[in-house]
Here is the input.
Amino acid sequence: MTVGGGPSRGTLRRICFLHYTAGQTLQDTDEKTVLKALKKMFGKGSDESAATEIESSTSTHQGVSGPAHAEKAKTQQDEAPKATSKPRRERASKPTAPPAPAWKPEDFTVEPAEGKTRFHDFKLAPELMHAIHDLGFPYCTPIQAQVLGFTLKGRDAIGRAQTGTGKTAAFLISTITQLLQTPPPADRYMGEPRALIIAPTRELVVQIANDALNLTKYTGLNVMSFVGGMDFDKQLKALESRYCDILVATPGRLLDFNQRGEVHLDMVEVLVLDEADRMLDMGFIPQVRQIIRQTPPKSERQTLLFSATFTEDVMNLAKQWTTDPAIVEIEAVNVASDTVEQHVYAVAGSDKYKLLYNLITQNDWTRVMVFANRKDEVRRIEERLTRDGISAVQMSGDVPQHKRIRALEGFREGKIRVMVATDVAGRGIHVDGISHVINFTLPEVPDDYVHRIGRTGRAGASGTSISFAGEDDSFALPAIEALLGRKISCEMPPAELLAAVPPKR
Here is the structure.
């Protein structure tokens, strides 16, 4: 890495080595002469930091003869890998926020409305309000209004809410406000996040990190994300390049960094646990416990926990990790059922693909999410759609992480018409503008049905879900209806939707 256009650290070392091999010592060399020569070699771009590197290198070697020092250095290099602890990395200066375009709070005018809470009703920093304005959020969702009312006063909170309710923005706005109001410590090191957000899936981590980037773009706060399945060294390089203000991570990859001494959690001011029920289901709680033990005591940090359900296990965890939390509950069923038109087609298993193909092509749907229960089903559906000329991607545990992220971006940008996913992979996907959700197979767990159809009809928009009830999965329908509290009428699909798929040309 070059500094200010000057020589790299490795180049400087090679120059020093040449002095040794020539039988010279740095003690006998005038430092100013060396610096002058280097400026001629590398141009006038060498700045004070480059000079500092040279000077510190010089002072280290003064008074030691070349060959003797070279041998000593070799011995030290041989012994270095045996060290068990790695020193924390300190940064000289903090990057400044990018210059924001001319914007005034007066540009964000939202009239008071009965029954609605504005972001203006909270004391939020202008930089944060600017980002909220860019995102087009005039009013808070119910969970945002309730959560922020407590967390902005410093209280811990437990929230019960499904995806699509705005909970991510709720805890991000609260976290960003805390970091902006509290200056970072003067004695600060690399790899010490001030806010830690833990989520169970890679896709959810990526989504939260993207939302955080959008909300912090005028603040100068740095957001990083750690997920498994991605290049470790690349993530480590990002960690070493700048301070970390907000870290979003899956439990396993965070522990990897922590156990290697790359991440230290003793400076965490805000801890967020998202989808705690899912982390329980996936067996992540032992890892989460390990992580939380390394953060400051719960009395010295703010803790926010969110879950789709308040089971006894979830509440026990919340009791252990929070202090006098405010409890906020948003009814999930109402969120899903009020904005999503739900249909069920009774169809033979052999006709399911024809029905799917014709629904998409005859209606010219452009952004559709299809759910199936098994990874092999997901793969077969995606392959057939692609073969039949419909752009599709699959999202399952069998797909490498870099491909999953690329697929999600293509779907989000509208380059891909159909995403086929399992419940685990699809849980953390938040994409605006999904018009239709299709359950190729009905889920065995009724809660998963609510999660699936919640991908559409988000933020007050309307959406449609269509479920295929075949011979093998129609038994799941009564439990889903019991959860929803109402019957879902079962229809026979029109004949034109069961037409044969045109042969491939």
About this structure: The chain is about 40% helix and 10% strand. The chain has three domains: 9-81, 105-330, 339-498. Residues 216 and 283 are 32 Å apart (CA to CA).
